Amino acid sequence: MSLSEFEVIREFFNKKELALDREEVLLGIGDDAALLSVPSEKVLSISTDMLVESVHFPKDAAPAQIAKRALLVNISDLAAMGAEPLCFTLSLALAKQSEIWLQQFSQGLAEIAQRYNIALVGGDLVAGPTAISIQVHGLNSSENCLRRDRASVGDLIFVTGCLGDGAVALASLGLKTHLGDSFKINREEYSINCQNYFNSIYYEPEPRIEFARSCGKYIASAIDISDGLIGDLGHICTASGVGATLFVDEIPYSQSANCCMSKPNLLKAALYGGDDYELCVTVSKTDQEAFMQAAESTNTPVRCIGEINDNDRICCYNNSGAELQFHNEPYMHFSEEIQE
């Protein structure tokens, strides 16, 4: 690639398809820092995630797919806060990439930016092993921010969409998981439709922005499911000083996951797999009906899978009332080496 750092920024990123016109953005790409105006009745939500080649996406992944996933998983954090996407910064470490690669990456990024009206306002570009760091900014009403630390005993636990797809998709792409040797796809049942579904769900997860903003008034606490249900619900419980009961037979799965995974592996994927980017929320019983109606108005499937209690742990039960014991752990960077 013959272009310099600043030529790459000007050619592929400082353009109207990415540097969207938002009245809150007073100054975007092109200076030492962006300038943002936050309305007096709003607060700013900020989150960041980094994606690394061969950990979060295969080395041969299409550049547009990489860009879409990188921005979408960050926007999912804004959904978990009930925030409206505003703007983002992009920092890229790139090995030798062609101008065609950059053009396709830029186009994929622009597609998501326009879909969620989130403007690129700055970033950085360096040479090195391929990694992507995005910081997103969103706007919340100062009186209606979703948080992890507001769950109360008696709240019902709901999840959006289907769980486990992220871990199954990771396995389908040939990337390592932390779920052990037995976590394998049944290739005899793995159709081209399944492959297309998991590629789509992995590279274009759907941040539940509209759902969170429409249902926020009825939600006590929320988190996006990036590290597995047990781990992320555990963050809610720790922050709120509560425990939880999960009814694992109520966990929703996609038809594709049901077709190509055993039941034990489905449950393992949902509880410990991560990469689902659905929301786990708690709702008081008095708000349950209004919450479900609001969710339906956004065409978001929700399922009640448990209840908050005053224990100091998460207990899992099946429909027969038997408590289940597991020995897996949610995904954590810097933990023991990923199981082969």
List its traits.
single chain; 2 domains; 33% helix; seven-stranded mixed sheet; alpha+beta; Phosphoribosyl-aminoimidazole Synthetase, Chain A, domain 2; 10 helices; disordered C terminus; 340 residues; four-stranded mixed sheet; 60s Ribosomal Protein L30, Chain: A
Order of helices and strands: HEEEHEHEEEHHHEHEHHEHEEE
**CATH level 4 superfamily of the largest domain:** PurM-like C-terminal domain
Q: Radius of gyration from the CA trace? A: 20 Å
Q: Which architecture name of the largest domain does CATH use? A: Alpha-Beta Complex
Distance between the termini: 36 Å
**If you average the pLDDT, what whole number results?**
93
Q: Briefly note the CATH topology name of the largest domain.
A: Phosphoribosyl-aminoimidazole Synthetase, Chain A, domain 2
Contiguous runs where pLDDT drops below 50 for at least 5 residues: 333-340
Give the count of helical stretches: 10
Q: What proportion of the residues is helical, as a percent range?
A: 25-40%
Number of domains: 2
Instruction: Using the coordinates above, name the CATH class of the largest domain.
Output: Alpha Beta
Quaternary organisation: single chain
Shape: globular
Structural class: alpha+beta
For the secondary structure, the number of strands is: 13
Q: What fraction strand?
A: 15-25%
Largest sheet: 7 strands, mixed
Strand order of the largest sheet: 8-10-7-11-9-12-13
